[in-house]
Design goal:
heterodimer, A: alpha+beta, 2 domains, 7-stranded antiparallel sheet, 9 helices, 26% helix, globular, B: alpha+beta, Dna Topoisomerase Vi A Subunit, Chain: A, domain 2, Nucleotidyltransferase, domain 5, Dna Ligase, domain 1, 9-stranded mixed sheet, 6-stranded mixed sheet
Chain lengths: 548, 687
C-alpha cells in the first residue's frame, strides 16, 4: 500500500486503524460519562471523530446517524476560515447550522492536532446542549420562524488559545443560556475529549512517524472507497424515484411534498433532490450538512452497514440539491427541529433503494424522533428541562416481522429513559410504558413492529411542554404489497377528567399542576409479499387513552 | 492441607490441587460431562487420585468454578419463567433500552427477552422514587396470576415493582404470597438480587436469576452429594464473578453472581500474586485459546464493572445484569485465533478461532488455517518437542504451510508473516490493556503485569516493554492459572444500593448509618457471628450535580465533606481527565465490599542454594525477532530447575509444562524465593 511515495506495510496499517477506533471510542466514553445533559449521556446526542488535515473523516464513534456527514463539511468550513491562523493548543467552537452544522443547540468543538509544528489531524466533538437561549427553554420552539428565535450562535470562534479557555467566550455562553452550569460542564467534557484525542494521535505519530500515519489515513479512505464502489457496481444501473409527504412544519399543518431521484451508474450513485419545495416557515428545515448525514446514513446501510464509517465510503456519492430548499436551508431559515426534516431525506432514499436490496432494507418506520420537551420547576424550585425522544415501531423485512420499540433512524445507540431515573430527577410520574398493540398485529406476510405508549403525569407547578411529531397524518409506507403502518400521536388531558384531546402534533402547550401529558405512538405496521398480503391500509382509530 | 479447585469449562474440566505444606501440585483434566457436570468433576478427582496420588481426605478447601450459569443463559436452557410487575410496565423487559448500536442496520432487532409477553403479568401497585406508597398493592390481582402460573407450568417467577430499590415492602409481600401459593416454584424478588435503580436492568437481573436458579440448585445439590460420597468433607465454595468465593448455599440463592466465575478465578490469582510481591497495582492478562482477557487490580482489589452486560458486543445491546462482576476486557485474540486476509487484502487475526478442534494447524488435528500459536511456533518460541511437557508434538511444517496461505499473497516470507500475525495480536492486546489502564486513568508504569494462559508468557515481555510496566510477572502454573486463582480466592460478598443525596455533613452521617446496615447484612451473610473477622471496604459513587453517571471513590468513616470531596474530585480526574472544583457533588450509590479474613494460599519457598544456572539450562534455540534482528540463538532454561534469587539476562527462553516464556534482549529475569518469574528492563547499564 503506497500513498505519496510512502509505504505503509499492512500490519502497521491494521495497527493504526485499530488505534483510531480505540481513540474515538475513548472520546465517546469520556463524553457520555461526564456530561451533565441527559440528552447527551442518555440519548447520546453527540458524536466524536477524527479527520485528516484536509478535513476528511477517518474515524467516528458508534453513536447516532445524525452526524454521519456533518463533520467533514463543518471542519472544512473551519479550515477555510482559520487558514494560517491556527496554533498548537487552539480549540475552536462552532454551532452554525449553515456551515455544516445542524442546529444552534449542537456545539462543535474542533481541535487541530499538531505534530512537529504541522497539523496531523483534527479531532471533533459535537454535542447537543440542553439550552442555548432563544425563545423557549430548550431553545427549540416548534413554531419558530427564524434562526434568531433559536438561541446563541457562535459560528467559529477560538474557545481555547494556547490551552487556556477564553474567559470572554465562556462569559458570552453563560450569560446567554438558561442553564449555564450545565452548559459549561458539557463544554469542559467536550474539551477533555479532543485533548484525549490529541494525546493518542501524538503517541501514534511518535511511534510510526507523522507521514506514515497520514499515509495510513489515505490508505484507509481508498480501501473504503473501493469497497463502496464494488457494492454499488453490483446493483442494477437505473434511476429510482420516491416521493413522500412531511406532515406540517410547526407553523402550518399543510402537507409538504418531497421527492428524490437516485441514479446508479456503474460504481457511482447520484442522489438528486431537485424539485423539493423551498425552505418552509417552520423549523423542520435542514441545511446542507444535515442533508449529507441523512443521505449517507442510507448509503452506508447499503454498502457496508457494520464497517467503521469514514469519508472513503462516500466518494462514489454525489448529492444534488439546489440551495434554499427545505433540505438546503439558508440563513435565516429556522432549523431547530432539523432532524424532523432530514429524516424524510433519508427515508426518500431508503424508499427508492429498498426494492434493490431487500436483504438489507426494511419497510418504512415511525420515522419521527417524536421528541417531547417538558420544562418547569422541580420541588425545590430549581428549573428543569426534560428532553425525551420516543422509540417506535420499525418496518418488516423480507424474512422477519418489524422490530418493536426502537429508536428512530436519526439516532442510534440511543437509550430510552429509565422510568425510575425520571421520577427521581423530575416532578413527573410515568403512568404507563408499553407496546401499543391496539388494532391488531398488522397486515402482510410480515407485520410491522409495535410502537409504544408512554403516559406522563406532571406533578410540578407551572410546567410547559412542547414537541414536534412527524408521521402524524401520512402513514409509514409498506413494501412489496404490504400494508401501511399507523401514525404517531401526542395527546393531552386533565388528570381529573376522562376526555383528552389530540394535540396539533408540532406545538407548545402550557400546563398547570395536575394536568397530564401523554404521548402515544401508534404501532407501525407493514410489509408483505403481495401474494399473501390481504389487508393494506391500517384502520387508524383515534387514540382514547389517557391517564386513568 | 490440600486446596482443591475444579473449573468446568466448555470442553474440559480442569482440576488443580495444591499441598500448601509441601508445594506439591496435583493436576488433572477430564472431558466436561454436559448433562451432569458433577460427573466430569468426579472423573477429574478420580484421575488425580490415580495419576498423582491426590489424597481426598487431606483436602481442607474445595473451590468450584465453571460455566454452568452462563451456559444455561446463552443456550437458553433455563426454566420456564414468569414475571410479575407493576401495572402498565410489563413490556419494559422486552423494550429494553430500545437502542440500535448497529446503527446502519435497517433490519436491527433488540435481543429477545427471557420471558415472553404472555407470561409477564401486571399487578396494581405504585411507589414513588422515595419509596412512599402511592397505590397499595392490590392483592386481588395476584389470584388470577397464580392460576395462570399453575396452568402454564411455571417453574420460576421474578417479581419487580418500580422503586423497590427504595422500598422493597410490596415486593416482599407479593413474593411471600406467591411462594406460599406455589411452593414448588422459585420466586425471586428483584430487591434480593439488586438494590440499584433502572427498572429494565433490575428486571432483567431478577428474571435471569430466577431463570437459572432451579438448575443451579439441582446442580449444586448433586455435586455436594457426590463429593460427600467421595470423602471430601471439607467446606465447599463456589467461585463468584466478583473475584471472591461463596458457600454453595449462598451461590444457590443468588446464582447470577456466578456468571463470570471462570475468568474471575484468574483475576483472584493475579491479586494474590500482587500481594505476594507487595504490589497493590496489578495488570493481569490471560491469553486463552480464543480470547485474551485483561483486568486491573487497583489498591490490591479487583476492579468491578459497573455496567456488565451478557452477550454484549459493539453492535448488540446484550443483557445488562446488576451483579458485581470483575471488570474484564476481553478481545478475540488467543492462541487459536485465526489469521486471514480480509476482502481488501489486509491481514487480520481473530476473532474466529480454531478452538480445540481442529485447533491450530501445528496440532496436526486437521486444522489448515494459520493461528497465533502457529506463528509463535514458527518464530521458534515454542519447541515442537517439549510443548505441553512433551505430551503433544507440534508439527512445524504444518504451521509453515498454513502461514504460507497468508504469506504468499502478502509477498512475505513465512517467518515475516508469522511476525506480522504476532504483531497484530500484540497491537490488539495493547489496545485492550490500555483500555483498562490509561483510558481509565491508571498508569501502567505503576503496575506489575501478571501474564498467564498457554500463549501469554510467550508474548508477555514485549507487551510489558511497550506498556513500560514496572515488571512483567509469570506466576506459577501459568497454563492453569484460573483454577489456581480459585485456590487463592477469599470469601467475599458485595452489597450495593442506590441512595440519593447532596454531599453534606448530614448526608455523611446518614451514609455511615447506611453502611452500618450493610455491615449487619454482611455479618448475617457470612454467618460467623458478630466477632467475625471481616475486612470492609466502603465505596461511594458520586457525581457532579447534573451528571448522570457517577464515579466510585473510597469512603472513610472519618470523612468530612472536604476530605470525601477531594477523593471524589481525584477519582473523577483520574477517570475522565478533569475536575470541576466548584461544582456541587451528589451521592448516588453505596457499595460495601466485605471479605471474610481466613487462611489464604501460601506460596512455598524454593530452596535458595539449589542448582546453578548452568544446570537449569537445557539447550539453545534460534528465535526469529523480525527482519531487523533476524534469527538469534537463545539459551533455554527449565523453570523447575531454576533456583531462588537467580538472575539471567535475555534473550532467553524459560520452559515449563504449561507455558513458554520469552525474555527479550535488554531484559533480565529474576526468580523470587517463591519461584515467581519477574522480568524487568535492564535499565541504565550498557548493552
Amino acid at each position: 500500500m503506497t500513498t505519496g511515495g510512502k509505504l505503509v506495510d499492512p500490519v502497521t496499517q491494521e495497527i493504526i486503524e485499530g488505534k483510531l477506533m480505540a481513540t474515538v471510542d475513548e472520546m465517546g466514553i469520556v463524553m457520555a460519562r461526564t456530561s451533565m445533559s441527559p440528552v447527551i449521556y442518555e440519548v447520546l446526542d453527540f458524536a466524536c471523530g477524527l479527520l485528516t488535515a484536509d478535513g476528511e473523516l477517518v474515524a467516528q464513534m458508534n453513536g447516532i446517524t445524525l452526524f454521519t456527514g456533518t463533520f467533514g463539511v463543518q471542519v472544512k468550513a473551519l479550515i477555510e476560515k482559520f487558514t494560517g491562523n491556527l496554533a498548537d493548543g487552539d480549540i475552536l467552537l462552532s454551532n452554525d447550522p449553515y456551515a455544516g452544522g445542524t442546529h444552534a443547540c449542537d456545539f462543535a468543538i474542533v481541535k487541530p492536532l499538531f505534530v512537529n509544528g504541522e497539523i496531523l489531524a483534527y479531532a471533533i466533538n459535537v454535542a447537543h446542549y440542553l439550552d442555548v437561549g432563544g425563545s423557549v427553554p430548550g431553545s427549540l420552539a416548534p413554531d419558530a420562524t427564524s434562526v434568531f428565535q433559536e438561541g446563541l450562535r457562535l459560528p467559529g470562534v477560538k474557545i481555547v488559545r494556547a490551552d487556556v479557555f477564553s474567559d470572554e467566550i465562556l462569559h458570552i455562553v453563560s450569560e446567554n443560556v438558561r442553564l449555564p452550569e450545565i452548559a459549561l460542564g458539557d463544554l469542559n467534557a467536550q474539551v477533555a475529549t479532543v485533548r484525549v484525542a490529541g494525546r493518542r494521535m501524538a503517541e501514534l505519530a511518535a511511534r510510526y512517524g507523522a507521514s506514515v500515519v497520514q499515509a495510513a489515513f489515505a490508505n484507509l479512505l481508498n480501501a473504503s472507497e473501493t469497497r463502496s464502489r464494488t457494492a454499488i457496481a453490483a446493483l442494477p444501473d437505473g434511476r429510482y424515484e420516491a416521493t413522500d409527504i412531511i406532515d406540517g412544519d410547526g407553523v402550518s399543518q399543510e402537507p409538504i411534498h418531497v421527492k428524490v431521484a437516485v441514479t446508479i451508474a456503474g460504481d457511482s450513485i447520484t442522489i438528486d433532490f431537485t424539485g423539493c419545495p423551498p425552505a418552509v416557515a417552520g423549523p423542520i428545515n435542514c441545511a446542507r450538512g444535515a442533508l449529507q448525514s441523512a443521505v449517507r446514513t442510507i448509503v452506508k446501510a447499503m454498502v457496508g452497514p457494520q464497517d467503521p464509517s469514514n469519508e472513503g465510503w462516500f466518494r462514489p456519492l454525489t448529492v444534488i440539491a439546489p440551495p434554499g430548499t427545505i433540505f438546503t436551508a439558508q440563513k435565516p431559515s429556522p432549523t431547530g427541529w432539523y432532524y424532523e426534516g432530514s429524516v424524510h431525506a433519508s427515508e426518500l432514499v431508503w424508499k427508492a433503494l429498498a426494492p434493490l436490496m431487500p436483504s438489507r432494507f426494511s419497510a418504512g418506520s415511525y420515522s419521527s424522533l417524536c421528541v417531547v420537551y417538558i420544562s418547569g420547576r422541580d420541588r425545590s424550585g430549581q428549573p428543569f428541562i426534560h428532553i425525551e425522544p420516543q422509540h417506535g415501531g420499525w418496518g418488516a423485512s423480507e424474512h422477519r416481522d418489524g422490530a418493536g420499540a426502537l429508536i428512530a433512524l436519526t439516532d442510534g445507540d440511543t437509550y430510552n429513559y429509565s422510568v425510575e431515573v425520571i421520577e427521581a430527577r423530575f416532578p413527573l410520574r410515568v403512568k404507563r410504558y408499553g407496546f401499543n398493540v391496539e388494532g391488531g398485529a398488522g397486515a402482510g406476510r410480515r407485520r410491522g413492529g409495535f410502537g409504544i405508549v408512554r403516559e406522563y403525569e406532571i406533578l410540578g407547578t407551572d410546567a410547559s411542554a412542547y414537541g414536534s411529531f412527524g408521521r402524524t397524518a401520512t402513514q409509514p409506507w409498506g413494501m412489496d404489497g404490504g400494508g401501511q403502518g399507523t401514525v404517531n400521536a401526542l395527546q393531552i388531558a386533565p388528570c381529573t377528567g376522562r376526555s383528552c384531546s389530540h394535540l396539533w402534533p408540532r406545538c407548545s402547550y402550557r400546563t398547570q399542576q395536575g394536568r397530564c401529558v401523554a404521548r402515544h405512538h401508534r404501532r407501525r405496521r407493514r410489509v408483505g409479499r403481495r401474494r399473501r398480503a390481504r389487508a393494506t391500509a391500517y384502520r387508524a382509530r383515534p387514540a382514547q387513552r389517557l391517564s386513568d | 492441607m490440600i486446596r482443591l479447585a475444579t473449573d468446568v469449562g466448555g470442553t474440559f474440566t480442569d482440576l488443580v490441587g495444591y499441598d500448601e505444606r509441601s508445594g506439591e501440585l496435583f493436576t488433572a483434566k477430564s472431558l466436561t460431562t454436559v448433562k451432569n457436570q458433577s460427573r466430569g468433576v468426579l472423573n477429574a478427582i478420580a484421575l488425580a487420585e490415580e495419576k498423582c496420588g491426590l489424597r481426598t481426605r487431606d483436602v481442607t478447601f474445595f473451590a468450584h468454578g465453571g460455566t454452568t450459569v452462563i451456559n444455561a443463559i446463552t443456550e437458553r436452557k433455563g426454566v420456564r419463567t414468569a414475571l410479575v410487575t407493576t401495572a402498565g410496565f410489563r413490556d419494559v423487559l422486552e423494550i429494553g433500552r430500545g437502542n440500535r448500536p448497529d446503527l446502519y442496520n435497517l433490519q436491527f432487532h433488540s435481543p429477545e427477552p427471557f420471558v415472553p409477553r404472555e407470561l409477564r403479568f401486571e399487578v396494581r401497585e405504585r411507589l414513588d422514587a422515595s419509596g412512599n406508597v402511592v397505590l397499595p398493592l392490590e392483592l386481588d390481582d395476584l389470584r388470577p396470576i397464580i392460576v395462570r402460573c399453575i396452568e402454564e407450568k411455571i417453574e420460576a417467577i421474578a417479581v419487580l415493582f418500580l422503586h423497590s430499590y427504595a422500598n422493597p415492602e410490596h415486593e416482599i409481600l407479593c413474593a411471600g404470597i406467591l411462594a406460599d401459593a406455589l411452593p414448588e416454584v422459585t420466586v425471586c424478588a428483584s430487591h434480593t438480587v439488586s438494590r440499584q435503580w433502572r427498572e429494565y436492568e433490575r428486571t432483567n437481573t431478577a428474571v435471569l436469576n430466577a431463570y437459572v436458579q432451579p438448575i443451579i440448585q439441582y446442580y449444586f445439590e448433586r455435586l455436594e452429594e457426590a463429593l460427600m460420597k467421595r470423602g471430601l468433607t471439607c467446606p465447599y465454595y463456589a467461585m463468584q464473578s466478583n473475584g471472591g468465593i461463596s458457600t454453595f448455599d449462598q451461590a444457590v440463592s443468588s446464582p447470577l453472581t456466578l456468571v463470570e466465575s471462570g475468568p474471575a478465578g484468574g483475576v483472584a490469582g493475579a491479586a494474590r500474586i500482587g500481594e505476594a510481591l507487595g504490589e497493590s497495582e496489578v495488570l493481569s492478562l490471560d491469553v486463552g485459546g480464543t480470547t485474551a482477557k485483561c483486568s486491573l487490580i487497583h489498591d490490591g482489589r479487583p476492579t468491578l464493572n459497573v455496567d456488565y452486560k451478557l452477550e454484549h458486543t459493539r453492535i448488540r445491546p446484550g443483557h445488562p445484569v446488576q451483579v458485581p462482576v470483575v471488570d474484564i476486557v476481553e478481545i478475540g485474540s488467543g492462541g487459536g485465533s485465526i489469521a486471514r486476509l480480509d476482502d481488501r487484502g489486509a491481514l487480520r487475526v481473530g476473532p474466529e478461532s480454531a478452538g480445540s478442534t481442529p485447533g491450530p494447524a501445528c496440532y496436526g488435528h486437521g486444522g489448515k488455517k494459520p493461528t497465533l500459536s502457529d506463528a509463535i511456533l514458527t518464530v521458534g518460541i515454542f519447541d515442537p518437542a517439549t510443548f505441553a511437557g512433551g505430551s503433544m508434538h507440534l508439527d512445524k511444517q504444518k504451521a509453515a504451510d498454513a502461514i504460507a496461505t497468508v504469506a504468499t499473497p502478502l509477498g512475505m516470507s513465512i517467518e515475516d508473516a508469522a511476525i506480522a500475525i504476532i504483531d497484530i495480536a500484540h497491537a490488539s492486546m495493547i489496545n485492550a490493556l490500555k483500555l483498562v489502564t490509561v483510558q481509565r486513568g491508571h498508569d501502567p508504569r505503576d503496575a506489575v503485569f501478571v501474564v498467564s494462559g498457554g500463549a501469554g508468557p510467550a508474548l508477555a515481555t514485549r507487551l510489558g516493554r511497550d506498556l513500560s510496566v514496572k515488571a512483567t510477572v509469570i506466576p506459577p502454573h501459568p497454563g492453569i492459572f484460573s483454577a489456581w486463582g480459585m485456590l487463592a480466592a477469599e470469601l467475599r460478598a458485595d452489597f450495593r444500593g442506590t441512595w440519593f443525596s447532596a454531599l453534606t455533613a448530614a448526608a455523611l452521617g446518614e451514609l455511615c448509618s447506611r453502611f452500618d446496615g450493610l455491615e449487619a447484612e454482611a455479618i448475617a451473610y457470612f454467618a460467623k457471628g458478630h466477632d467475625a473477622d471481616i475486612r470492609f471496604t466502603y465505596q461511594v459513587e458520586a457525581r457532579y450535580r447534573g451528571q448522570e453517571h457517577g464515579v466510585f471513590a473510597q469512603f472513610d468513616r472519618n470523612d468530612d465533606v472536604e476530605s470525601f470531596a477531594e477523593r471524589f474530585h481525584a477519582a473523577h480526574e483520574r477517570a475522565y481527565s478533569f475536575r470541576l472544583a466548584g461544582a456541587s457533588i451528589e451521592i448516588t450509590t453505596l457499595h460495601l465490599e466485605a471479605v471474610l479474613n481466613g487462611p489464604v494460599i501460601t506460596l512455598p519457598s524454593l530452596p535458595t542454594t539449589g542448582n546453578s544456572i548452568v544446570a537449569a539450562m537445557t539447550g539453545r534455540r534460534d528465535v526469529y525477532f523480525g527482519a531487523a534482528l533476524g534469527w538469534v540463538s537463545c539459551p533455554v532454561y527449565q523453570r523447575g530447575l531454576l533456583g531462588a534469587g537467580q538472575m539471567i539476562d535475555g534473550p532467553m527462553i524459560v520452559e515449563e509444562t504449561t507455558a513458554t516464556t520469552l525474555v527479550l534482549d535488554g531484559q533480565v529475569l529474576e526468580v523470587t524465593d517463591t519461584g515467581i518469574l519477574i522480568i524487568r528492563e535492564n535499565s541504565g547499564e550498557a548493552e
